[in-house]
């Protein structure tokens, strides 16, 4: 196992940081490393908002559901899918541009995620800790207003970065067995692997909580599939020009 | 610059490979490294189909627009956003599950992309070359049938992996200046940075083609925003249970 793969397998979401600040040049280097990721047809359909204003950091921490570390970590980034830059660049050449295609939403969201994952891993390779903030999508319209995001740009997720408080480093969370994820030639049922994983997650939660947490992977998923999880996303995207045509 | 960041900044899409095959244990290690990536609420909403059947490899090469290296590279993977596994797991606990939310499409697509980018970089850290295949979405229904993908699973992109033919390694393609991508506190216009990048891309294409290719970044984007780019994606996703409600 080489050091890069080792780094990937030791990822955990860090939410407790020291007061040390990340040098500006390091931050730029992380973004440049992010830009090295593959991008669909070279479109580079992303922008990153570096939120430094303390009031805005506190406001975003609230809007994301009370995640204080957004306000206190060294640096907070909002990764945005950006179809404004490329569509306008194309338009300036005289091209006839159609916006709002479902495919464009996918291209921009995937481009943004590939780029962000490089940033995350680059940060970890420099000894930093990170935490993705999907809670950005709890209130995407308010956050878009705060960051003055124009049409055809939407915030996909945030990321907290900082030097981890090594005395409070969370454990690496187990993952589904590789046999459930990797399938040969065709999709196959993985109910048995999921059942085995549920058992190991139940032991994991019990051990970590001193017997107080009695749950497993399958039970933990319920809030995600409840109708209440971000039902505003469709209208929000449409309103920002991602009409999913 | 540490070796992990160096690796990110030297990424290129490799389409020419030697005949050497990737050991099975290495492939499993790459997938496990992929699984180390952050996942929204631990949902792990992805499956990877390892396509080994030569007839299917050739058929996918055609369906993706005549990309022969899909058939000839050592290993070909199709990364799928998978909402079947977690929604059914949740349902088995007795939960009332709503499918087809726009948010679920985003969660699964982003989860898949984060995971895949780890796989890509893990492969490169082992001396392999990779190429993402967005052309999977040229004919997603036919490819889903071929791989027997059930409802609530869709193929986001493919990935070719193999040992690069080092005598035909493509150059690292330039990226937009970091000043265009990283914005302080609010979205700002980057027309000037794009114009400068267009100039440098024009020189890059001219040099590489011995003066024959006269284009730039903005002109190259036109096919992406033409109405003809994958207008079937919306209906395809709806038909597979991703209704974008």
TrEMBL record, chains A, B:
It comes from the Bacteria. GO terms for molecular function: FMN reductase (NADPH) activity. This is FMN reductase (NADPH). Keywords: Flavoprotein, FMN, NADP, Oxidoreductase. PANTHER family: OXYGEN-INSENSITIVE NADPH NITROREDUCTASE (PTHR43425:SF2). Its EC number is 1.5.1.38. Transmembrane segments: none annotated. Belongs to the flavin oxidoreductase frp family. The gene is nfrA1.
């Amino acid at each position: 196992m080489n050091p890069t793969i080792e780094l990937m397998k030791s990822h955990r979401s860090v939410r407790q940081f020291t007061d040390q600040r990340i040098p500006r040049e390091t931050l730029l280097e992380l973004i440049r490393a992010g830009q090295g990721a593959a991008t669909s047809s070279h479109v580079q359909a992303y922008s990153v908002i570096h939120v430094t204003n303390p009031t805005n950091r506190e406001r975003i921490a609230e809007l994301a559901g009370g995640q204080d570390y957004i306000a206190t970590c060294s640096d907070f980034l909002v990764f945005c899918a950006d179809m404004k830059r490329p569509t306008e660049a194309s338009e300036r050449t005289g091209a006839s541009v159609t916006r709002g295609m479902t495919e464009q939403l996918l291209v921009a969201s995937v481009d943004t995620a590939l780029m962000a994952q490089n940033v995350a891993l680059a940060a970890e390779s420099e000894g930093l800790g990170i935490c993705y903030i999907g809670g950005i999508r709890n209130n995407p319209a308010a956050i878009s207003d705060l960051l003055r995001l124009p049409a055809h740009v939407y915030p996909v997720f945030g990321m907290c970065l900082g030097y981890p408080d090594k005395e409070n480093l969370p454990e690496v969370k187990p993952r589904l067995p590789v046999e459930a994820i990797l399938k040969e030639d065709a999709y196959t049922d993985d109910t048995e692997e999921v059942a085995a994983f549920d058992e190991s997650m139940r032991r994991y939660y019990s051990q970590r909580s001193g017997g107080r947490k009695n749950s497993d992977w399958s039970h933990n998923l319920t809030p995600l599939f409840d109708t209440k999880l971000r039902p505003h996303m469709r209208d929000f995207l449409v309103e920002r020009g991602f009409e999913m045509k």
